[in-house]
User: What shape does this take?
Amino acid sequence: MNMTPEKINSLLSDCTLCPRQCHVNRTLGQTGFCGQTMELTAARAALHYWEEPCISGSCGSGTVFFSGCSLQCIFCQNHSIAVGKSGISLTLERLTDIFLKLQEKGAANINLVTAGHFLPQICHALEQAKACGLHIPVVYNTGGYEKISSLQLLEGLADIYLPDLKYCSADLSARYSQAPDYFFRAAEAISEMLRQTGRPIIDPATGLMKRGVIVRHLVLPGQTRDSKKILRFLHETFGNDIYISIMNQYTPMAQVSGFPELSRPVTPEEYRRVLDFADKIGIEQGFFQEGGTVSESFIPSFDGEGL
Assistant: This one.
């Protein structure tokens, strides 16, 4: 799709990009759940080394962290930008240039973090960047709460999808993300992502992913049962057509003070139980994390670097 300024305005004047379907006119400065107008804002654009090995490699992933979020999980490590408290305004031309500059720095890919509410503008910038020589893979890095029609805007532009599948339980997704329909929406989104990319393609020379889907699941304290349901669903539904990344980096942040069950990290025993279950049901294409990931040092500084 050729994402023209007219098309951008059309999509944002009655915004239904995400499952919230707020129907606000962002072109007039109105904001919905994501907290963003049509003004494109981001908090950081730099090489990032803390993604899965096939995404970051040794050279780093060219990661752009966008401001705002249509999910806004209460425990989010990027809470300050998810709620729109950090960010620098960008023109479409500047975003195009950022993509090209990251490629010049040797980035393994362009990594779009929490970009769904800016998809029309980002698609335009990607089209312009590709016309100017952008050739590295594009990664769409998302919390998973997506609409199929919005993901289809990325067809031919995104090469790798990196969605979360956070919850199976509607009670949990309602409590922590105000999205009781999360599992249904994320599950159908992953199916669409896989339709677009096909099975994973890894460059044997570099170990870097060229195409495919990696589904991330962050284990939450006290929720190993829900984690097991998610892993079983992913394995039985998608098998080896996707990679699964099982994460233990949950870090209690200040904003979870009203949720006492989230006030502690995941214990080694909880994480081990989830990994043992993954092994038991036959998950082969996966990633797991070792000790030392529960730390705010893994959260980058949202200081406008690279913008």
Q: What stands out?
A: The two ends are 27 Å apart (CA to CA). The CA atoms of residues 44 and 304 lie 5 Å apart. The chain is about 35% helix and 15% strand.
